[in-house]
């Protein structure tokens, strides 16, 4: 409390008004000024000033004002009962898979992927096994080149498989128009036709290249 009603809710009666100095002004009146602990006003701060951070002297407890409590809205209603349990998914694996070890399962998985992509190991015709491809130069005195047919055949099969994968990706592409797919398919068919020369190496006709009519 203060004995001067004129200083009610002013700096002169505020608990944060410190380092007070009395000074006699030119009119002979005593004026008191000091500093604010919150530095709300720059010095010199007179006792008649005021601000929104006023705390009456004698009531200051140095405790921060309580923060407003956050009021949360009601939780959304549960659509299902907490005691309700979802039915577990049930399915049965074939007994053949249950009896397989890891290596056997990997081999089956590879076979399925090869079948889906249309790729896989093709079998070389029996009469070519152990044979060679001889590249004989026309220039006399130069050495010929011999390549095992198995090596050549594996590279031919690899080209065929990559063309088949490319063909499937083109057909499944979502941004290509039907006309663009047909045009690209014609390019791939042309590649197949250029490789029909190697059809003689395949043991199974279903594994051979199929181009346009007249390419064989």
Written overview of the protein:
The chain is 28% helix and 12% strand. It is α+β, with helices and mostly antiparallel strands and 216 residues long. The strands form two sheets. It has a three-stranded antiparallel beta sheet, with no helix packed on it. Strands 4-5 form a two-stranded antiparallel sheet. β2 (30-36) and β3 form a beta hairpin. α3 (149-172) runs antiparallel to α4. The termini are far apart. The relative contact order is 0.08.
Overall mean pLDDT stands at 77
N-to-C order of helices and strands? EEEHHEEHH
Low-confidence stretches: none
Helix/strand-derived category reads alpha+beta
Query: Distance between the terminal alpha carbons, to the nearest Å?
Result: 114 Å
Helix content: 25-40%
Strand content: 5-15%
**Biggest sheet layout:** 3 strands, antiparallel
Overall geometry comes to elongated
Order of strands in the sheet with most strands? 1-2-3
Rg for CA atoms:
47 Å
Give the number of helices: 4
* Count of strand segments: 5
Can you summarize this structure?
This protein is α+β, with helices and mostly antiparallel strands. Helix content is 28%, strand content 12%. The radius of gyration is 47 Å and the shape is elongated.
Secondary structure layout:
Elements: E1 17-24, E2 30-36, E3 45-46, H1 95-98, H2 102-117, E4 132-135, E5 145-148, H3 149-172, H4 178-194
Keywords:
alpha+beta; three-stranded antiparallel beta sheet; 5 strands; 28% helix; elongated
